[in-house]
């Protein structure tokens, strides 16, 4: 199993994996390699991959330099699934305020540094995001999420994917952050990765939740304790492309 995953992870670690034929939010995020723009790309990364990329392609990220009024005016008519135009604009305003406040890495590190806990780091980051903008709606709350604890049901897939981009440094991931150790990262568990991991008997838990994230991450540490999340993109693509039978 380790041989299979090592082989797949090396094969998938290529910019050739990013194209409109094989859509992924990284296709847009990699153009900028910026922690703030990447956060926007990551948090809108739910639903159909082609639709995600189509939406992200339309966004003008230079709006993060503009006033709240300009942001609201410029993003009229922009919506994505659960987020209406107000939700999208308010999220841009929040990220702009975060950019004015501090680096995202520093905000995350405040929680992470105590016990090198990603969950504590996300708690610090999401708490600050919620603090910077009092706006609330169903769509906005879904996009931003709630500050996690060890008992949280959510897998925090989009945030964990964002952390992978920021911390790991390879052909796909940016390695922009230097204060967080890749050995502490958690697997960005989406439905593709969840099902493939069960089929490969890497994951026994039946519930799609944070405990499943921790179980799978710990299992992958048996293959590489210093970089367990390096297998994420390979597992994701295996599931997305339905190629598991071809790998036997």
Structure overview:
- The chain is 54% helix and 0% strand.
- By secondary structure, it is mainly α.
- α5 runs antiparallel to α6, α6 packs across α8 and α11 packs across α13.
- The protein has 13 helices and no strands.
Q: In terms of per-residue confidence, which ranges show pLDDT below 50 for 5 or more consecutive residues?
A: none
- Biggest sheet features: none
SS-based structural class? mainly alpha
Helix content: 40-55%
**Tally of domains:** 1
List the helices and strands and how they pair.
Blueprint: H1 2-12, H2 26-32, H3 35-43, H4 49-58, H5 68-74, H6 85-101, H7 104-112, H8 118-132, H9 138-144, H10 157-167, H11 191-199, H12 210-221, H13 232-240
Helix pairs in contact: 1-13, 2-3, 3-10, 5-6, 6-8, 6-9, 7-8, 11-13
Give descriptors for this structure.
248 residues; mainly alpha; 13 helices; globular
Quick recap of the structure?
The chain has helices at residues 2-12, 26-32, 35-43, 49-58, 68-74, 85-101, 104-112, 118-132, 138-144, 157-167, 191-199, 210-221, 232-240. The chain has one domain (2-247).
